[in-house]
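re the bet — no i am not wrong, look at it urself. input seq straight from the record:
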Amino acid sequence: MTSNAPGSFPHIPGPPVGPFAAALAADVLVLDGGMSNQLASAGHDLSDELWSARLLAERPEAITEAHLAYFEAGADVAITSSYQATFEGFTKRGIRRERAAELIHLSVDLVLDAAMEATAKGITRPLWAAASVGPYGAMLADGSEYRGRYGLSVAELEGFHRPRLEVLAAAHPDVLAMETIPDTDEAEALLRAIRGLDVPAWLSYTVAGDRTRAGQPLEEAFALAADAEEVVAVGVNCCSPDDVDGAIETAVRVTGKPVVVYPNSGETWDASARAWTGRTTFTTAQVEGWRAAGARLIGGCCRVGPEAISAITRTLR
């Protein structure tokens, strides 16, 4: 974008590799941290199946405040609250399709609102909006995004993702964040679904060791995006910090693209108890090594808050 806030108007469609890709080439960008933990720390109940997406309808100002907290902490890129915002998920709650589309679109608008507030407060660096596209398993709300293998074909998964992608693209984010993808079938579906949207994207897998959560080698997983012109970065998120180093090496070697990394705190999600267990292992000491290895987008996912993003910012700048 040419202004300090993303989403400057009028929007002029351009090639997928536009301003955001240029920003990646110029410097490392700091991502935000977990949306859910920031909202929970502000006192919001996220026990619903819609998770943070419920607040799009009930408390959108809370989402704007969460984005603003990360911009103030030093994040350059804020990821929208649309991870679990799907037509199917909203339908389960009795929300009609037209209203669901409005809420999905709103998720991008709220980042733009936060960016403008940040600019009004004196933040002068460019700020970017990344529209979250969570996996099919996020809609199921049963932890299956950490397993993949839903029993759906690539075509069926493409049909699930495309309508939401069209709504998000129409809201003019700077990039689509196809995140927490557990297997290559879903990655292939998403790569098909983003064609022709005129918005760049990143593809980020959730992994265990050197494999996707569904067990495919990361070499194969990253190779799917190697020749995709729309994809400006590949990487991993919602994983252990210990899994990041190997993923960066593989992503750089297989694709030659910039790498995106935003792991969890190191704690483990218990889907049946809907709670985090274990201890934090994420340290900012790891961040400099990630940058040196080829990471160009660095932040945190679940249980990583503004304090950690502030520390990452100090380390990288």
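see?? The mean pLDDT is 90. told u. also The first strand starts at residue 29 and ends at 30. so pay up
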